[in-house]
Structure formats: C-alpha cells, structure tokens
Amino acid sequence: MDTNVILLLLLVPLLGSLVNIFFGKKLGNGSGIIATLAVLISFIVTVVAFVQVNGTKTPIQGNLFEWIAVEKFSISFGFLLDQLSLLWLLFVTGIGTLIHLYSTSYMKGDENYGKYFGYLNLFIFFMIILVAGSNLLITFIGWEGVGLCSYLLIGFWHKNQDYNDAAKKAFIMNRIGDLGFLIGVFILAFLFHSLDYMTIKTALMSGTNHQINTWIGCAALAIFIGAIGKSAQIPLYTWLPDAMAGPTPVSALIHAATMVTAGIFLITRLNFVFDLAPLVQDTIAIVGAFTALFAASIGLVQNDIKKVLAYSTVSQLGLMFMAIGFGAYEVAVFHVITHAFFKACLFLGSGSVIHAMGGEQDMRRMGGLDKYMKVTYITFLIATAAISGFPFLSGFFSKDEILMVAFEHNKALYIIGSIASIMTAFYMFRLVFLTFKKGFRGTQEQKNHLHESPISMTLPLIVLAVLSIFGGLISWPGSSWLNQYLQPVIVKSAANHPHALGFEAYMLMGVATVGFLIGLIWAFRKYIQKAQVPQEDDKITGFHKVLYNKYYIDEIYDKLFVKPIYIIATFFRDVVEVALSGAVFGLGKIADELSLQGKKAQNGNIGLYLFAFVFGICLLLYYLFIAR
Amino acid sequence: MENVIEIIGIDKYIYLSIILFCIGVFGILYRRNAIVMFMCIEIMLNSANMLLVAFSTFHQDAEGQVFVFFTMAVAAAEVAVGLAILVTIYRNIGSIDIDKLKNLKG
Amino acid sequence: MNVTILLLTLLVGAIATYISGKKPAAKVALLFGLVAFVETIVLICQHNAGTDAGYMTQWISNPNIHIALKADGLALALTLLTTALTPIIIFSSFGDHIEKSNIFYSLVMFMSFAMTGTFLAADGLLYYVFWELSLLPIYFIALLWGNDTFEVRKKAILKFFIYTFAGSLFMLVGFIYLYSKTGSFLLQDLYNARLTGTEQYWVFLAFFLAYAIKIPVFPFHTWQASTYEKAPTVGTMLLAGIMLKMGLYSVIRWQIPITPIAAKEVMPTILVLSIIGVVYGSIVALKQANIKRFFAYSSLAHVGLIAAGAYTLTLDGMKGAVLQMIAHGFVIVGLFFVGEIIYRRYQTRMIGEMGGIRQQAPKFASIFMILMFASIGLPGTFSFIGEFNILYGLSQINLWYAVIGGTTLIFGAFYMLRMFQKAMLGETNAKPFADLNTKESIILGVLAIVIIFLGIYPKPLADLITPSLVEIVSYIK
Question: Any idea where the NADH:quinone oxidoreductase/Mrp antiporter transmembrane domain is (chain C) (predicted)?
C-alpha cells in the first residue's frame, strides 16, 4: 500500500510530463488540462496521505530498489512521507495545481505550449522526489532535477540570448551550491556510513560522541552552502533576480513558492545535524539577516515589477534563514508556507498585469490599472498587505514570529530584520501604488488592450488571496497547530516547551505594526500624495544609482571570477597547450637530430667501413679474450 | 707412420695461419683495388682452411677436412658472384678503385 | 559458449566485411557487430549463472606464452561496452559517402576485435599484442578517411601513433622484466610476483607511461585534441568511446594489482595529476572553437576524474571509475554523433558558426540536451552514478581531492551550457536545419535510453563488476 501511494505520487506527474513533451504538439490545448490534472491527482494523493499520517502519526515509507552501493553501505531508492515532507508536498502540489491552471490561459498561443507543461510537470516530479526522498542522495536527485527544470523554464523562450544567459547563470550558481551539498553528503557518509535521514538521526540521538563535532560542523556548513545556492542567499543570490526571464507562472511556482525554499526544507530535514553545529547556526542567522536587508534595499528602487518581487523573495528567504539560524525551524517553515501563498499570489497578479499590458514589465509605464482589473487589484492588495505585515493576515504572524525569535536571541539581528520589514512594506506598497493607482502612463495602444484576465487566471488569484488571509491560522501565537504537527520531525521542537504570550510578545507585535505603518505611509506620501514616478535610467545618480544597479554585484562577480577564468582559458589554450605539444614534438626533434648526426658516419667510403669493421672485431676479441 | 704434425709441431701451423690472416686483413685495409682485396679475402679464408686441416690431422678426426671442402665450395661461389659484380662495376664506372664507389653514402 | 567465439565473430566479421565488397560492407559489419553484441549478452548471462567463459591454452612453450582469456565481470563489462558501441558507431555512419567502404568497415570491425581482445586477455604478451593491434586500424582510419588535407592530418595522426606506440614500448619492457622474474606472462602469476619495492616502482612507471598517454592523463594529452579533430567521426567515437578505456581498464586490471606497493606510494602524485587534468581540461574546453576539440577537452576532464577514481585504490573509487568509463563511452559517442549531425547539415564544426538550431529541430535539441546533462553528471543519468562513486572514493582518502575534483560539477556545467547556448540557442538560424531522421533518432534514442535507465537502475552493472574489483582490491592490501 505504502509503495503504491509513493509510486502514484511520483509517476503521475512524470507521466504527464512525458506525454506533454512527446505529444504536446498533437494535444494542443489538451496538454494544459492533462498537466493540471496530473498535479491535481498528486495533490489529492498527498491529501489522503496527509490525513493518514496525521491520524496514525507514523510516516509512510517505501524502498523501491537498491540504487547505489558503496563498500560500507548502500543507498536505496527510498521515500519517506512524514509530517515535514507531507506539509511541503501539500503546498507544492496545491499551489502547483493552481499555477498549472493559471498557466493554461497565460501561456495560451505559445508555440511550445505542450513543452511548457511538460517541463512544469517534470518540475513537480522532481520537487516531489526532493521532498519525499528518504535519504540525502534521493533528495539530491530532486535537488538537481529542479535545477534542471529551472534552467529549462528560465530559458524557455530560448530565442532570446539574454534569457539563456540568465538560465545558464542560474544553473551554474546552483551547481556551486550543489558541490557544497555533495561534500556535505560525503562527510555525513564518512561519519555515519549511511545517508538515510532516519539512520543519521538515530545515530546522533543515541551516541553523544563529541569527537565528531568538528566534522558535523563541516558537514552542516557544506550543506548550508548547498542551501545558499538553491535558496539564493548572499553570496549566491544573483541568479534569482535574473531568473525572472522565465514565464511569470514559472517565477511564481519555482522562483518564489517552492524550489527556492528547498534550502530551508533541507536544513529543517537535517535539524538534528545543525543543532550540533552552533557556529554554523550563527553563520546562517547572520547570512540570512544580511541577505534580508541587502535584497530589500535593492528592492526599494527597482522598476521592473518582477524584479521587485524577486528581490522581495530573496529578502523573505533571508528572514527564513535567520529563523533557522536561531534554531526556530517551525517558524521558518511557517513563513515558508505563508510566503508561498502570498508570493505566489503576487507573482500571478503581476503576471496578470503583464498579460494585460502586453508584455510590459516596467512600472513606470503602468499606473491606474485598478479600474481595469478589479480582481487582480484586490487580490494583489491583499497579498501585499500580507507580505508587509498587516495585522492578522498570514504574513503578520509568520514574520512576527521570526522577529520575536530574533529578539530573544540577538537584538542586532532583530533590528536588521525589522528594518528589512519596513523596507518590504515600503517597496511593496510602492509597487501597488505605481502599478494600480493614479493615471495610466503607458501607450494608447496598451491602454486599449487593458482587460481583466480570464477566470482560469483569476481563480488561482482568489484562492491564493484567501489563503494569504487565513494562512496564519495554522500557527496562531500561543497555541500553534503547526508546532504540534511538526513535533515528531524536529528534535528541539518548540512544542515541547510552549511559552505563554507575555507582554513582550504583544509589544513586539505592536512594534511590527508600527513598522508596517511607517513603510505604508512612506510609500503613500511619496507615490500617492506627491505622485512621484521613478526617474528614467540615465537620470539616476548617487547612492540611488548604486542601489538601482544592485550594488554592482554582477559586475564585480564578472570581473572577479568570470573574466579571469576566460583569461586563464585563453592562456592555457594558447600557451600551455602549445608548450606541452612543443615538448612532445621536441622529443621527436631530438631523435631526428641524432639520426642526422649518425648519418654522417655513413659516408660511403668502403675503406672506412672495413676499417671500422676490423677495429670492431679487434675490440671484441680484446674484450672477450684479453680483458677478462 | 709418424704424424707429420708431430714432426713440425702444431704451433708452427698456428703461427703461419695467423701471419697469413694478418696479411689478408692488412691487405684489405691498405689496398684500394677491389681485385686485390678479393685476393686478400681469399688469403684469409685459406689461412682458416689451413688451420682446420692442421687441427683435423692433429686430432685424427676427418670432420675438419669436411668443413674445408664446404668452405672452399662456398668461397668459389662467392668469388664467382663477387667477380661478376666487379665486372659490372667496371663496365659502368670504368674503375674498380673502391674509393670511387660511394653510392652507399647515407 | 566461451569468449573465443566472440573474438572469432569479430575477426570473421572484419574479414567478411572486407570480402563482401563496397556496397554491402556497412550492413555486413553491422550484422556481425550485432551478433557480437548478442553473444556478449549471452556470455554475461552465463557469467551470472556461474559458468566460467574463460579460455586458456599454451601458445608458445618457450618463451612461455599462453592464449589466456579471462572473462570475469570486469572484463565482460568492458567487452559489453565495446560490442554495444560498435554497432552503434557503424550504424551512425550509414548513409555517409565513404570511399573503399569495405576496407573502412573492415578496419572498424578489426579494431573492435583487438579492443575486445585487450579487455579479455589474461596473458601479458597476448594482451600487449592486442593492445598494439588496436592501434593499427585507428591509425589507418584516421589517416586515410580523416578531415583536412592529407598532409595536415598526417602530422597529427603520426604524432598520435608514435606517441602512444612509444609509450606502449615501455609497457613491453615492463612485461619482459616481469617475465624474467616469474617465467610467465600469465596475469595470475604476475599478480603473485612478489616484487620488491624498487622493482615495483620501475615496473609501475613503465606501465604508467603507456597508460598515461593512452588515457590521457595531464600532461600527456597533447595528441588527443588534434587526433579527435582530424579523425573521421567514426574514428573519433572509437577512440573516445572505447579506446581511452583500454588505458583506464589496464590501470585497474594490470598496473595496480601487479605493483600495489608502488601504486600506494605514488598515489598522491597521480591523483594530483589527474585532478589537474580535470580542472585544466574543463578550463581549456571553455575557449575551444571547434566542437570536436571541445568534446576532446571535455573528455580530458572526464577521464581525468576516472583516472583519479582508479588510482584511489579503494573499491568505491575503482567501481566508480569502471561505471564512469562505461557511462562516458555512451555519452561521448552520443555527443560526437551530435557534432556529426550538425556537420552533415551545416558543413561546419565551428561552434561560432552554429546557433539557433533548437528552434528548427526540437527533437534533436532535446536529445542533445539529455546527452549534455548526462555529460555534466546530472543525477538520474548514468554519469552521476560513476561520478558519485569516484568523488565518494576520493573524499574517503582526503576531502580536498573531492572538493577540487568536484569542481567538475561547476566547470562542466559552465562549458557545456555555454557551448549549448552558442551552438543551439538564440535567434533561428538562417540556414535550414532538418530535424533528426529515423536512423539518427534510433541511435540517439538508444543512447539516451541506456544512459537514463542505467542512471536509475545501475545495479546489474554494478553487481557484475563488483566481485572482480573486490578481488583486485584484495591484491592491494
């Protein structure tokens, strides 16, 4: 039974993907329906499994076959559906279904419609593998697999080389992280002779061998590097904003709601390892906090609607990492879920806007869209309020919990996180005001084209907006269902020592609300009252320009890493290769020279030959009979 | 009948054949006329032959003399071929001075 | 059935192809290639059932030389690689205009015969004979049917021939020395030779020269790129797909177990050289304009990693090396075929002159992409299994080897994606590009299926080679 559930979960999206890739052209619009149904079935299976596991409290497990065997242990193709993976699967397949549905309209008319859904299904398939794998290496299949799908989908419109560059960059930067992941796997394999999550957990729980703690720290650090790559943290975050080259639903699904949270999933999965590495945890918290601030500050001045959302995603992921750094895994997970709701809603909303604007993404060319697209506007506003921390929406609770944890552990990081939150409120409302309020700034042609999106696009928006409102209920402060639910998988679970809501908690909520108001009013004054529109690119100066150009990080990376590699490559090709090749030819030349010299003895003088012959015989005789 | 070797002594034969052989060798090295060099080779061959015969008698064993017959036969064949070559060379070049034969130059 | 039948099939195939005449030559060669493949499968089934398919008889009594063929899992796995790729390689050239095709295909079959013999031989001299025999056909294939003008390619091919041949001579010297010690060329006797440390050191070095050139290990690789470039694609496939593996296989089969002490001593140096090869090959590949040279340098990087795996002297490293040999064989043959397909349509091998192909040929682009990602070592493809095993083996010796060797993950993605972007993506190319025809689809489809299937279920192959490797590792200890 268990194996069947797993097989069903896995094979349906895979089948959908294969059908769409191979027969997409023939299916026409049918491929969108097939793909959506495939994910829907996965979602239903997940719900069934979720109900079962939630009831019995025992995870569903199944090993399909032995995959790789090394000398000391073997790695099976095994899957584990426990509380954590099911939670992830719920929103992956759930939001996945909505986004597939959305895509059926959004991508209509694209020449590679079928292939798009094929890739999207493939992504869901790999994401399920990533989340449901029972050992690190199966997770790694999914980990790289989603990277592959991300590559395929970012570069989906492959005629444009800029998009291809973005796809390539995403894949390579992810690969840097993947190497870290793999190194972490090797260290863990070295320590425990197993890669199975359960086995490692038991080994760590039973024996408290302090000798291995340094190695555990190294492993944790290496895996964190993997997470940095996938979840776009400093210093490997630059691929995510570029990844917005892909179709907008892809950005919503992969680059906001699901794939980029894989890093958080992995660390939460291995919480028992990270608990033993306090130094690494501190690093995670600091990296997370700085990423949150850094990305938020860039987000303040971006004019591309999707770029703003991308930097917002990086920033929010930073907050999640900060929570993980403090050991508050449930809080991070909570934020992952609420973030998935409202960020997916925001991306889909922006997709709806872009759709209406005929592909225009620059907010300076928008404005006043609320009159034309009521549903999009309202859902977008709800999601914005949620992400900015409007009281009692989902984002308010989850972000507040992160800040609360930060306040408990480290006041400096709390302040950084709070500033990032204020910035978030500002740039999100800036986005809303510039896009939906005031007059329309685009061309007349665009204006005539403006329309509300069809129901298949607005329905996901509505569902996600509702979830953004009520998503916070799963972890109501003081009596958290989520904490209880996750208790079996998190060793130092918060559910074991719940703390009552004291004065401090209410005070922090108040502070957060004030922060939200500051951001909101700041944006309101600037873009509604003063009706400012961001300047054109060439007029930007000073620090604003630095921010607008993302601190020139891309350029620095280019100068620091990419260019030198090309220079070295040219050097190797033109100098070292030639030298090595010359050395081999040199050996040939030496032989040639020797034979030339030897040739001179062969001068054709028979007398000399005879003399040499007799002389040689004499020498031989001397050696044989006299010298002995 | 007394053995002729015992009267003269084997050592004399050895000296004689060494002398003959050396004459042959020096002749080859010194002379430039191919025919003379041929003759020198014959002298060397015959010095070896003589030694074979002498030892054959000394040991009262006919095997050595059998060898000599073979050697002579081979030498005769070799001379026939060699002289033929020399004749051809002479026809082509007009000389059998080996200093003029440098076609083997590498 | 024993392995002599397999060898005879290939040899008879070579002769029959020659006799059959120009028109049917390709088909005859393909037929014999397929028969050999089926025979290999039967042999493997027999092996798994426990029957020994080896063969041994005295060849020359003095010196003591045997015709000894050992058909253990390791040898059979590599034989399978050879006999599986041979028909694919032959089939890939169907439809090409080849002059004197009967001689050409006959040479291909003969090469397949010699390489199979090299993998199976269990007598040093016989092995050496096969080893050198395999060099002759590829020399003529590359010289007579290669690209560029005769004079230009002669230089490259002659360099290749003399370079590899000179290396092999050192191996012969090594064997003769071993014979003087043991009085036998038999593999088993050489394993038990009990040489002193210094002797082992010299024998190891003599073997190393031969193998380092053949594999090739950095810095002995200079013949590789130019030969790959000048040889006809069939020749390049034979070279890169199978012949490189002869060197790697010999390291595991002959060099390491005969000279374990020396191997342990010089292991760090060779690991460093191999890993330099990985990084160096990857970086040089970045700036290659010719697609065949590009694949050549990517091969250099890959075989560098395989060599590192073999020289770890651990079961995991060696197992990874063998698996990766087979994986690399399939992948690189596919990639060279991809290059050939582009050449057929565009008459160019310059990456800069391609571009915008994906738009016109989606099927081709998809399979190219599968092969590319397999080459990068994406999990789910066969290459990942080998790469993981090798890196795991390296990490168990010293984590830094795995870290530096693991940069192949990053560099591999870097150069491959860059090439793919330049060659395949972008605005639709003005020149039309017909999508894959049936023959091409069959070949690439088979390769893709093999690569993915073994990536998900590598157990049969891994089980086949493990016992032999366990035995070899036992000689090291």
Answer: 123-407
